[in-house]
């Protein structure tokens, strides 16, 4: 269905429509004509309001779940409200501090992203989601620090100055000189490459027996490359926090919808594909209900904003998933602020 332009609604219809939508988003319940007639902002009788509601229903903007019930916005009506009528509110100082506190955590970027997503989830009462940027660090130097006879700390230094440590199980009979030999070999051969490129080169050299390494040192190099490559492959592409917010008193009568939504959140690959569509833009994207096939059954909304890396390119997406009756005016700016803060962190 094509969406009626807001300019085609007269002042009376716009006022009634706005009050119905705002009332529904605040309570999750249909809004009746008597409720609207009691508001001081309108000077209309319940009968006049019912006539306007009927007109809006015929336009596909409102719907009545039951014959005697009030009206609630359709997905088409919600889209019209979000795009043309909503007055967004900036995040409060307390909300900004809560988001920034999560991103101030030291440690791997994934931990900061997870903390910020949890904060966004708590503030919005939705499930928070973030796509973690796939990083392929360019290598500069390797090192092995012995911990005991059976383990060493494998140290990787990237061209950007990042340092990553992993505990590595050692092959039998490895000596300190073998650790130095393997580290020097890796630093000399693989500097300037990504892990994938280094792994491919090592495989070619070992296959053609052109490697200068023998025995335990050769196995040590193979284990060092493998542990980082495996770790990179296992890093979460999508972090979801706060699914419990999707189950509240208002969902008790709609548990099937919630069950479907939680199942959709478990299928992270499908969610990731949806969020990837937000990578191409520079602005926040809003998906309402069946506008996206993934949420056509659960009737959920997604608000997603891209964030940028050090070079200014979009590297990930952060956002929330919740019921269509989100407080869009509050949550959209909150997602925007989180994306902007993430972009500053990634610089």
From TrEMBL:
Name of one Pfam family that matches: HrcA
Repressor as UniProt keyword = yes
Keywords attached to this Swiss-Prot or TrEMBL record, sorted alphabetically, are:
Repressor, Stress response, Transcription, Transcription regulation
Q: Per its UniProt entry, which superkingdom is the organism in?
A: Bacteria
Residues forming the Heat-inducible transcription repressor HrcA C-terminal domain are 110-332
> Which protein family is named in the record?
Belongs to the HrcA family.
What does this chain do?
Answer: Negative regulator of class I heat shock genes (grpE-dnaK-dnaJ and groELS operons). Prevents heat-shock induction of these operons.
How is this protein named in the record? Heat-inducible transcription repressor HrcA
Q: Origin organism of this chain? A: Sphingobium xenophagum
- State the organism's lineage: Bacteria, Pseudomonadati, Pseudomonadota, Alphaproteobacteria, Sphingomonadales
């Amino acid at each position: 269905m094509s969406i009626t332009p807001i300019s085609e609604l007269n002042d009376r219809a716009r006022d009634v429509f706005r009050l119905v939508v705002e009332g529904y988003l605040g309570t999750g319940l249909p809004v009746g004509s008597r409720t609207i007639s009691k508001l001081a902002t309108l000077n209309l009788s319940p009968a006049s309001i019912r006539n306007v509601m009927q007109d809006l229903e015929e336009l596909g903007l409102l719907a009545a779940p039951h014959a005697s019930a009030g009206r609630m916005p359709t997905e088409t009506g919600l889209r019209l409200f979000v795009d043309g009528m909503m007055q967004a509110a900036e995040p409060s100082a307390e909300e900004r501090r809560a988001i920034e506190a999560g991103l101030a955590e030291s440690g791997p970027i994934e931990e900061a992203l997870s903390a910020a997503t949890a904060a966004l989830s708590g503030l919005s009462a939705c499930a928070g989601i973030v796509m973690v940027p796939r990083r392929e660090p360019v290598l500069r130097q390797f090192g092995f620090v012995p911990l005991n006879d059976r383990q060493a700390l494998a140290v990787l230094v990237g061209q950007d100055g990042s340092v990553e440590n992993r505990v590595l199980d050692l092959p039998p009979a490895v000596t300190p000189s073998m650790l130095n030999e393997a580290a020097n070999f890796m630093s000399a051969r693989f500097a300037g490459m990504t892990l994938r490129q280094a792994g491919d080169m090592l495989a070619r050299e070992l296959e053609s027996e052109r490697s200068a390494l023998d025995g335990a040192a050769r196995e040590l190099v193979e284990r060092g490359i493998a542990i980082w490559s495996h770790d990179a492959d296992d890093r979460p592409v999508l972090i979801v926090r706060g699914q419990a917010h999707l189950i509240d008193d208002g969902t008790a009568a709609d548990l099937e919808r919630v069950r479907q939504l939680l199942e959709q959140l478990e299928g992270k690959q499908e969610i990731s594909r949806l969020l990837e569509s937000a990578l191409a833009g520079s602005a926040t994207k809003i998906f309402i209900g069946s506008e996206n096939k993934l949420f056509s059954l659960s009737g959920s909304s997604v608000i997603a904003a891209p964030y940028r890396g050090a070079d200014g390119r979009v590297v990930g997406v952060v956002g929330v998933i919740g019921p269509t009756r989100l407080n869009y005016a509050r949550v959209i700016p909150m997602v925007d602020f989180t994306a902007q803060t993430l972009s500053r962190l990634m610089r």
